[in-house]
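Ops channel
N.P.: pipeline sanity check, posting one input/output pair.
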């Protein structure tokens, strides 16, 4: 190819740029953290920022981008995991619990934390709840050493650990509904142990179930409550809706098309400026079923790639004891329906 003399300098510079040599991977510095060879992390502009500023910038990213950032490089994990780990540990300390031993005991019992405490890990402006809901299949995590010298398991008023005392055992449906703020349909809750710490003015509900704890989480009345904390991970099952402060109502439609069930937890969520919809199209938006990750027609499973999972610690040596679960959301008005579901929060539910 003939080049015009006037363009020789430009073409020569272009050829030099193309043939510029880069260091071989074997010449790069070995990173003991990643166990790979790569350029120094300081070469990236994000690592030259103060950590607080970097965390603040990442907090504005959507969950999908945070997940990609977390998976792209182990040096970037701290921008995603550090805030989650701090909120989880802060929540446990607010209830007078030592995070390390309690999380390890949760792993041993295969327990998860649900309810408002799990929601505030992903929606930061949700206030700290007064009640901590812990879902377990059998037994319950240890609360720590009792504050009194003598411990009597037969005495309900005895200190069960860190000042918590058993004040109620709910085995009937009405009592379970009163404690949880909603009813678990299918009667999968065996009993609820209500622990109270009068000094801290906090309560812990140990919800013992007949099914794996994840199956109780997906029976919540809205997708906003389908979040949980394991011993190692914080999991949001419907991140796209939760990120937009929206939730799908999953209350089943009774046979007579009417219901008078009281659902106080929906009042609580509405007070946090969270919005709940009975119509799937109104919540998710126009989409092609079942391709949208938040579409209720999509069969879901735990674990899968459609959820947002942050691994905040590798503590514990018992391994994962959470059983896999599959489900499909049951909503009052499915995708494509033009029916508008009117929901009066905290009162009777008027089905179409």
């Amino acid at each position: 190819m003939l080049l015009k003399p006037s363009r020789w300098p430009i073409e020569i510079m272009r050829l030099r740029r193309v043939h510029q040599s880069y260091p071989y991977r074997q010449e790069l510095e070995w990173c003991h953290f990643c166990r790979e060879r790569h350029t120094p992390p300081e070469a990236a502009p994000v690592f030259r920022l103060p950590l607080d500023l970097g965390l603040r910038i990442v907090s504005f990213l959507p969950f999908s981008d945070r997940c990609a950032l977390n998976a792209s490089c182990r040096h970037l994990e701290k921008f995603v995991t550090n805030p989650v780990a701090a909120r989880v540990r802060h929540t446990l300390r607010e209830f007078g619990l030592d995070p390390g031993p309690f999380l390890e005991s949760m792993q041993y019992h295969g327990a998860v934390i649900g309810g408002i405490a799990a929601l505030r890990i992903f929606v930061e402006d949700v206030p700290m709840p007064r009640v901590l809901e812990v879902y377990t299949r059998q037994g319950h995590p240890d609360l720590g050493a009792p504050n009194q010298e003598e411990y009597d398991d037969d005495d309900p008023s005895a200190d069960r650990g860190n000042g918590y005392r058993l004040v109620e055992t709910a085995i009937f449906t009405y009592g379970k509904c009163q404690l949880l703020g909603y009813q678990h349909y299918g009667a999968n809750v065996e009993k609820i142990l209500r622990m109270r710490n009068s000094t801290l003015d906090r309560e812990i509900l140990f919800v013992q179930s007949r099914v794996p704890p994840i199956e109780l989480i997906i029976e919540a009345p809205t997708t906003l409550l389908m979040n949980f904390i394991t011993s190692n991970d914080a999991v949001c099952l419907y991140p796209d809706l939760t990120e937009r402060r929206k939730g799908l109502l999953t209350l089943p439609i009774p046979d007579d098309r009417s219901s008078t069930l009281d659902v106080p937890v929906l009042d609580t969520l509405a007070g946090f400026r969270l919005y709940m919809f009975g119509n799937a199209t109104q919540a998710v938006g126009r989409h092609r079923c079942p391709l949208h990750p938040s579409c209720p027609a999509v069969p879901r499973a735990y674990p899968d790639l459609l959820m947002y999972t942050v691994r905040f610690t590798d503590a514990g040596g018992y391994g994962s004891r959470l059983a896999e679960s599959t489900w499909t959301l049951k909503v009052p008005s499915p995708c494509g329906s033009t029916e508008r579901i009117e929901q009066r929060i905290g009162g009777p539910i008027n089905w179409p």
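N.P.: looks fine end to end. The two ends are 75 Å apart (CA to CA).
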